[in-house]
Amino acid sequence: MTAMSNKLLQNVIIKGTKQGLTLHLDDSCSFQMLMQELDAKLSANIRTQENSPLIKVRVHTGNRYVDEKQEAELKELILKKKIFQIEEIKSNVITLEEAKRMKEESEMTSVCAIIRSGQVIEVPGDLLLIGDVNPGGQVSAGGSIFVLGTLKGIAHAGKHGKLEAVVTASVLKPSLLKIGDIINPTPENFMQEAHEMECAYVEDGQIIIDKLQVLKRKRPHLHKFEGGF
Amino acid sequence: MGEAIVITSGKGGVGKTTTSANLGTSLAILGKKVCLVDTDIGLRNLDVVMGLENRIIYDLVDVVEGRCKLHQALVKDKRFDDLLYLLPAAQTSDKNAVTPAQMKQLIDGLKQDYDYIIIDCPAGIEQGYKNAVAGADKAIVVTTPEVSAVRDADRIIGLLEKEENVEPPKLVINRIRSHMVKSGEMLDIDDITSHLSIDLIGIVADDDQVIKASNQGEPIALDPNNRASIAYRNIARRILGESVPLKPLDEEPKGFVAKIKKFFGVRA
């Protein structure tokens, strides 16, 4: 019994760093044991100082996959102590679905078609459209949208909230432009002056339309030689 | 084995029925055996435009429901010697009286006996449209130089491209008014074709005579001198595979009097 509890006590290792505490959680014991030990260790280490700032905590779960319910339990346990603030909960593993989604979201899908009125194209990652989007047509992507043609319909980039996403087109005259949940407030602007090769990106919570060349500065992450994942 | 061509547009009132009647007539003039099929069940018009209204005994729904034989329902156009027939739509039912499978079977039956089957499609993209395209091999999209008509044509082209049995559609631009195009008040042909990006098979000028002829039940294509008639006949020749150049729109009226009229700004 003592041997076992000795071993138990090594399931949670607390390290202090400049940024705060890092909790290394062992990944081979049961989650229940881990929680018990964590509770005990955090309680033992409390030095109650009034008005001291919250201690930042990073949690590393190693090769253990922590599902949403367990993550909530973990958070509850740590926050219950009232002196901690959770910075991040990190794990070395992700589920297959998450991995697939991340891969899909970082991939570029190229479509060679004219998106006509009433048609909808939806891709998980970036969209490269070789063709036009006619009025009444709709393109949406988890990432950015690049149109080699005229964009006159609806474009929705970063549909899961990715605000770094951009929309570019050879002729950018969309009837509606959305990046994340931001909707372009003044679509009338497009009609007045139509340059060739324009892009749209989000800055300070607003959609900005500018010439394509500014993207090199504004969105350097677009520059990549190999896949993002 | 004949060819079935559906005439469609999405929007109503752009001239599907007029185009169907005149293409059918033009193909018959060129010596082809043609059957016109009106699929606008409940709102039939093609018989009126062809002047065959009071000779209808049975209709498309009667054929589909087995109340008569196919050949009994076909109305022969006596102006042509056994070349032009019309299968009229029913006026008393609605579009749901027929299924796409039944239409396909019907059109396949007609293809045995006719060179060309021209299917007049109703407006809209619902049941009537689905019935009309079910048996078609080719499609002609009719539009007018109006933004709303072009928008609907775009929609319908998108739907037609999904049909596996139908070849990429061809475009007819109907009711072009050259003076409005010239003054920039109307969409011009380049705007429309670059927007829709499908092949153009004909341009028909807006002409009062077309309306007059339709009201009289004499398709304009029967008049050899009318410019709309010539446009329809040219489309028919293009369907037959002839390469007829697309006439520039602003064809100047020839002759001395016309030149004088033009000089004084009188429109022909």
UniProtKB/TrEMBL annotation, chain B:
InterPro entries to which the protein is assigned, alphabetical: AAA_dom, MinD, MinD_FleN, P-loop_NTPase, ParA/MinD_ATPase
Record-linked Gene3D superfamilies: P-loop containing nucleotide triphosphate hydrolases (3.40.50.300)
Pfam family for this entry, one: AAA_31
Record's keyword annotation contains Cell cycle: yes
Binding site for ATP: 11-18
One Gene Ontology term, aspect cellular component: cytoplasmic side of plasma membrane
The AAA domain, residue ranges: 3-161
MF term (GO), any: ATP hydrolysis activity
GO process terms (BP): division septum assembly; negative regulation of cell division
Keywords attached to this entry: ATP-binding, Cell cycle, Cell division, Nucleotide-binding, Septation
CDD domains in alphabetical order: MinD
Keyword hit for Cell cycle: yes
PANTHER family cross-referenced by the UniProt entry: SEPTUM SITE-DETERMINING PROTEIN MIND HOMOLOG, CHLOROPLASTIC, SEPTUM SITE-DETERMINING PROTEIN MIND HOMOLOG, CHLOROPLASTIC-RELATED
Recorded family membership: Belongs to the ParA family. MinD subfamily.
Function noted in UniProt: ATPase required for the correct placement of the division site. Cell division inhibitors MinC and MinD act in concert to form an inhibitor capable of blocking formation of the polar Z ring septums. Rapidly oscillates between the poles of the cell to destabilize FtsZ filaments that have formed before they mature into polar Z rings.
Protein name per UniProt: Septum site-determining protein MinD
Gene: minD
